[in-house]
């Protein structure tokens, strides 16, 4: 069982409700998000029309479908599959820490969507920084000794004696 971070959970809830433009309700993190309605509203705010049908009341199975719809929508939004929590992590409270991390990752990935101008979460994501070198620049480095390749002024392990031998002093 992974450790829960109450500060992270509070940050995630504050971000969700800032996106929705609503006041954060009182209660536990998992109780607020458990039925999936808030999550579906969130992804519809980030990417309108992502979740067509949201069940606000019904059986446990119908409420779990909200979470599954949310998961499919965030995957389509660009969140990697390995960062998406499992339905049981939230609904059955198996791994609430993973739910918080997954939502934090969603808040971070909003930075990659220029159409989203609302609040984001987490550190600024790096942009691709591709470099191109001319043939002349590439050839200029060929004559140099690359220190990353282990060159160390002739030092070697010659005379070491091999593994398992005792060291004679």
UniProtKB/TrEMBL annotation:
<dbReference type="GO" id="GO:0015629">
    <property type="term" value="C:actin cytoskeleton"/>
</dbReference>
<dbReference type="InterPro" id="IPR050606">
    <property type="entry name" value="Calponin-like"/>
</dbReference>
<keyword id="KW-0112">Calmodulin-binding</keyword>
<comment type="function">
    <text>Thin filament-associated protein that is implicated in the regulation and modulation of smooth muscle contraction. It is capable of binding to actin, calmodulin and tropomyosin. The interaction of calponin with actin inhibits the actomyosin Mg-ATPase activity.</text>
</comment>
<keyword id="KW-0677">Repeat</keyword>
<dbReference type="GO" id="GO:0005516">
    <property type="term" value="F:calmodulin binding"/>
</dbReference>
<dbReference type="GO" id="GO:0031032">
    <property type="term" value="P:actomyosin structure organization"/>
</dbReference>
<dbReference type="InterPro" id="IPR003096">
    <property type="entry name" value="SM22_calponin"/>
</dbReference>
<dbReference type="GO" id="GO:0007015">
    <property type="term" value="P:actin filament organization"/>
</dbReference>
<comment type="similarity">
    <text>Belongs to the calponin family.</text>
</comment>
<dbReference type="Pfam" id="PF00402">
    <property type="entry name" value="Calponin"/>
</dbReference>
<dbReference type="InterPro" id="IPR001715">
    <property type="entry name" value="CH_dom"/>
</dbReference>
<dbReference type="GO" id="GO:0051015">
    <property type="term" value="F:actin filament binding"/>
</dbReference>
<feature type="domain" description="Calponin-homology (CH)">
    <location>
        <begin position="6"/>
        <end position="110"/>
    </location>
</feature>
<dbReference type="InterPro" id="IPR036872">
    <property type="entry name" value="CH_dom_sf"/>
</dbReference>
<dbReference type="Pfam" id="PF00307">
    <property type="entry name" value="CH"/>
</dbReference>
<dbReference type="InterPro" id="IPR000557">
    <property type="entry name" value="Calponin_repeat"/>
</dbReference>
<keyword id="KW-0009">Actin-binding</keyword>
<protein>
    <recommendedName>
        <fullName>Calponin</fullName>
    </recommendedName>
</protein>
<dbReference type="InterPro" id="IPR001997">
    <property type="entry name" value="Calponin/LIMCH1"/>
</dbReference>
């Amino acid at each position: 069982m992974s450790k829960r971070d109450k500060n992270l959970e509070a940050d995630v809830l504050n971000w969700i409700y800032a996106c929705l433009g609503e006041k954060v309700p009182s209660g536990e993190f998992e109780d607020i998000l458990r039925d999936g309605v808030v999550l579906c509203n969130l992804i519809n705010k980030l990417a309108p029309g992502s979740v067509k049908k949201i069940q606000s009341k019904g059986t446990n199975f119908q409420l779990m479908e909200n979470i599954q719809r949310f998961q499919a929508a965030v995957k389509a939004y660009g969140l990697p599959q390995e960062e998406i929590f499992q339905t049981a992590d939230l609904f059955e409270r198996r791994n609430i820490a993973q739910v918080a991390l997954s939502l934090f990752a969603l808040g971070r990935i909003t930075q990659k969507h220029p159409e989203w101008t609302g609040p984001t979460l987490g550190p600024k994501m790096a942009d691709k920084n591709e470099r191109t070198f001319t043939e002349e620049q590439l050839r200029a480095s060929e004559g140099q000794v690359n220190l990353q390749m282990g060159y160390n002024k002739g030092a070697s392990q010659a005379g070491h004696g091999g593994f398992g031998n005792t060291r004679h002093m």
